[in-house]
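The following record pairs a protein chain with its ligand, zinc ion.
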Amino acid sequence: MHQQYVLPFVAGWAALGIGGAVLLGQLRSPPVKRIVWRVLTGLAGVIFLAAVWLLDGSIKNLLFMAPPVLLILLLNVWLVRVCDSCAALVQPRYLVPSNFCPKCGAPLQ
Ligand SMILES: [Zn+2]
């Protein structure tokens, strides 16, 4: 295990989480918010897999972690919706995407 990568990973992960939440909270354009959500989701996956690679250095563990990370990324892209009316980010309940925005009640596509 390469201990020197732990602090940069934690700092990068926290910066991505806090910065992403602040950025998404400021965006009011649904199409832009959708794009930013997908970019942040992809970036989180890349950082996580990079951390697995840098912390362990084993291709076996990287190949073991890649499918679940990819599945989580795809589920985040497919199931999380952005309301076209109020630009709210709507999380799925029990892996089922919501049909209506819980904030304004508008139908979601
Ligand atoms: Zn809404």
